[in-house]
Amino acid sequence: MPIKRICCIGAGYVGGPSCAVIASKCPDVQVTVVDLSEERIRQWNSDHLPLYEPQLDDVVKSCRERNLWFSTDVDKAIIEAELIFICVNTPTKLFGIGKGRAADLKYIESAARRIATVAKSSKIVVEKSTVPVKAAESITNILQANVKPGVKYQVLSNPEFLAEGTAISDLVSPDRVLIGGEKTDQGREAVEALCWIYEHWIPKEQIIVMNTWSSELSKLAANAFLAQRISSINAISAICEATGADVSEVAGAIGTDSRIGSKFLKASVGFGGSCFQKDVLNLVYLCECLNLPEAAAYWQQVVDINDYQRKRFALRIVESLFNTVTDKNITILGFAFKKDTGDTRESAAIYLSKYLLDEEAKIRIYDPKVEKEQMLRELTSPMISDNPDRVSKLVTIYDDVYEAAKGSHALVLCTEWDEFKTLDYKRIYADMLKPAFIFDGRIILDHEALMEIGFHVETIGKRLTR
Ligand code: NAD
Fold it and tell me: Considering the chain, what percentage of its residues have pLDDT values greater than 70?
């Protein structure tokens, strides 16, 4: 069944790029991405998109106002569409009286209620947000409880696997597309309609159809496995530091085993981003609700090791700087949670800055893509909850890395931006206080060359001899 109009609720890191790619690959389909945030929509309609992602500008420009539209008129877009993607955020609850830390589905619920309130014709509703297993059932219940005569709904699961920083290439050439749906005639028809969209550019054999609950769980499981690999190699990095082994050599050795593979084996100061921790906690919560405490404890360890890794690194910074950082200038290199994105959610830099602020350090921050207001907002967010006055007194944001480093006691590399590999470290060293320290939280720098210049270098999973 060819689809003529799509609506996407949520113009964020998933909704914007994924609908831009759909619009570019399906020129005969009208795609409207809607959001409650007027500012976000204004930016999507401007030359300064609300998020940085390689190739995104070109894709958006190629089809905006041809068959790709960004709007705050949620109701109109819902009414006109035959197929609606739900791409809203599903954050972890900050507080709660239930078991563990559940996903907060308030945005999913409000999107479903909006559809139920305004829809005048049948809709295929596609859950693209990452959700706990059986969320599609809750969406169906909300829609059916408010259904109008002659209107029918089919809810599908179609989790998104893009990674920020490579979103466009992931969307254009995904490893696979997952679609979960009911095995009824209406369910099959809805699945076929969604397949029809993806088949515009994705080979049929890469589109995997399964039952709805398997599809929902597959997304949580995929992210939990990726996060688990990072925590596993980070747990090994602690052993390396204690023994004199080198985690990069160990990762290289185990990665050549074809049963293990080399991807996601890079030790670091820990994973960040809006998804890994949230999705693992989602799985933990699910295990607890299903009365599977041992399984819950297993997955909880993935998050605990990540906390441990960040704290261990912060402690090493303090210990190296003669056990006090009070009033010392510490320059954080990179605030995004990884390179090639401006997204700062759950970034290691936030946690490290916070630990160092707790030790009374003066923090300077440089990131090539993240805006100043965003950094300050993160450092005073409820998760971190530092006092805004203290943050504005102790934190300075720079747009020139050399100025940031001038007069610093230490540099702490938190994001693996390529430009950090080619900085003029001789110039930086000359302008820093001595002894000058570099803490490489991503293992990307040439440690020998830095030591040659005179830096005291510390990194993850390796003891450097000097
Ligand atoms: P985001 O916060 O960037 O975007 C969500 C948008 O939804 C926001 O702009 C918000 O204003 C809007 N919104 C919320 N409720 C709304 C409503 N009722 N009507 C209209 N707009 C509404 O989130 P994101 O990073 O795009 O993630 C969305 C979902 O996709 C999450 O479940 C996430 O776990 C999942 N996901 C994210 C990534 C990623 O890399 N960011 C990758 C795969 C999956």
Answer: 98
Q: Residue 81's domain spans which residues?
A: 5-210
Confidence of residue 390 (pLDDT cuts 50, 70, 90): confident
| Final residue of a structural domain among 183, 210, 237 | 210
> 321 and 439: one domain?
yes
Distance 379 CA to ligand 1 centre (A): 21
Same domain for 240 and 180:
no
- Mapped onto helix, strand or coil, the DSSP state of residue 59 is helix
ipTM of the shown complex: 0.99
Which of 168, 274, 340 most suits a substitution to test ligand 1, by most atoms within 8 Å of the C-beta? 274
Global pTM value:
0.95
Q: Give the chain's domain count.
A: 2
CB contact at 8 A, 434 and 407: no
Give the integer Cα–Cα distance in Å for 274 and 359.
26
Chain centre to alpha carbon of residue 426: 34
CA atoms within 13 A on the CB side of 316: 24
276 Cα–ligand 1 center, Å: 14
Q: Is 275 tagged catalytic?
A: yes
Q: Apex CA 358: angle with CA 350 and CA 428, to 5°?
A: 65
* Residue 355 Cβ contacting ligand 1 at under 6 Å: no
Residue that terminates a domain, selected from 163, 186, 210? 210
Judge if 314 and 396 occupy the same domain: yes
Tell me, in angstroms, the distance from the centre of ligand 1 to residue 423's CA: 35
Annotated binding site for substrate: 160-164, 219-223, 259, 266-272, 337-338, 442
Q: How confident is the model at residue 150 (pLDDT cuts 50, 70, 90)?
A: very high
